[in-house]
Design goal:
The complex is a heterodimer. Chain A folds into two domains: 172 residues, P-loop containing nucleotide triphosphate hydrolases (Rossmann fold, 3-Layer(aba) Sandwich), CATH 3.40.50.300; 36 residues, no CATH class. Chain A has eleven helices and ten strands. The model of chain A has no long low-confidence stretch (mean pLDDT 90). Chain A is of the alpha/beta class. In chain A, β9 and β10 form a beta hairpin. Chain B has two domains: 156 residues, no CATH class; 71 residues, no CATH class. In chain B, α2 packs parallel to α5, α2 runs antiparallel to α10 and α7 packs across α9. The termini of chain B are far apart. Classes of the chains: A alpha/beta, B mainly alpha. The interface between A and B is large, with 41 and 30 residues.
Amino acid sequence: MIEIQNLTYSYDRADDKVGGLALNGINLTVNDGEFVAVLGRNGSGKSTLAKHINAILLPMGGYVYVDGMDTLDESKTWDIRQSAAMVFQNPDNQIVATIVEEDVAFAAENLGVPPDEIRRRVDYALGAVGMTKFRKEAPHLLSGGQKQRIAIAGVIAMKPKTIVFDEPTAMLDPSGRKEVMKTITELNRKYGITIIMITHNMDEAVCADRVVVVDKGRIIIDDKPRNVFSDVDKMRRIGLDVPQATQIAFELKKAGLDIKCDILDEQECVEEIIKLCR
Amino acid sequence: MLKDITLGQYFPIESPVHSMDPRIKIIITLVFIIAIFFIKSLWGFVAVALYVIFAVKLSRVSFKLVLKGIRPILFLIIFTALINLFMTNGEIVNIGGVPLKAGFLKITKEGFYSATVMSLRLVFLVMGTSILTLTTSPILLTDGVEKLLSPFSKIGLPAHELAMMMTIALRFIPTLLEETDKIMKAQMARGADFESGNIINRAKALIPILVPLFISSFRRADELAVAMECRCYRGGKGRTRLNELKIGTRDWIACLSMLTFMAVIVLINMYL
């Protein structure tokens, strides 16, 4: 469980006025097994928020608790990082070793796990991301999506309860995005790992159970995706898009057609339009 | 195209030499190099040649590949041989009553002998080390170096850090090559010219490639450091390994063969 209480943070320590705060009084609780998408414009503070969850950044005000451990307690830093792992945007800059399985083993090696247990964890992690048959390959020969899945396997080997993803698909091509999103949803549904995903892509946010919108260092919306995206006007005011399907429905409704607005994916949109035609 | 480069010259097949412990291989290679420099007679080199042939056969690497390592230093070998041949003092060789001597250049018996010994030494030196690098993957090589140097960490030698740096360097060579390629193409698309002009102009043309490459490497280094900390990296202390190095029967047999080889060399040096 992740509990964030009244968190404030500023990159510029000298600048104490409210405008200079990257995070300004964030309160958020993420329960075990949840899949939360965090949305926000560039510079809204969403990445800063993500970095607080595994103690890369420490709160200037307020508290962050990961499974009851305070991130300000330095003796707990490594336990926190093991419990709440993090995957970043660029897979190239996360992979350490020259062979896939060596890289997946890296985190477990750092934790001092015995060799045969590392072997089990590596096999388990590679299986969970569907990359078992690439275990002896060199990472630089893999595609972007495959590399990102290796990076994910690398943190799964720590057996974390929560994984924080910081725009995991931003540098990938459409097919890579699909692979990685499929892996992330599977980790949540099949393996029960809590997911906190920072993203720009609205269609990906739809996969989550809950959407949190951050703007100017504050949480302004915290609701189910369906409720969040149906208010297209509000999202646009914040400077965010909505999923394509929602947008089509919204425009149709504006044009005077009788269609419901809380549509999230293509399939639903197609069904609604067919209903209209009848 | 740049993606296809191989790291080091590792030749990935299965053989008794490939599956040896890297530490033992490194030690044997070191002993071999030292032995080569002790050999005085040509008989010694016969023993060395036999040993190298035996090792190559056992490693299932083709001779051509092992010999390929000599090509880059061929010039050095010829140069050393010629210097030794013409500059050594001693008994000047006569062919048909004509002494082979012109100015300060002369061919002596001793010169002929030391030229042969020197070039043979260099050739076998390269062949011996080639067998090591051809049969050991870079990652095992760094592991081996780390383990061999770890006793010195007590006197402040950062063995683990050195090995980590080597691993990361190896990992990022292809990534940075790819990036260089990308930057070059981007510059060429905007009319940069890397091929014409004299050497100074061409070196100057490289600056717009090196600057963005450096900047992006620093950014990469920063991101990698954060990602490593996220995966609980805190130096070599208390770290375990997925594949622990183990010394097996095979390695003891190899050591035995090395000792036999040394004994033969010593005997040859004493009696022949």
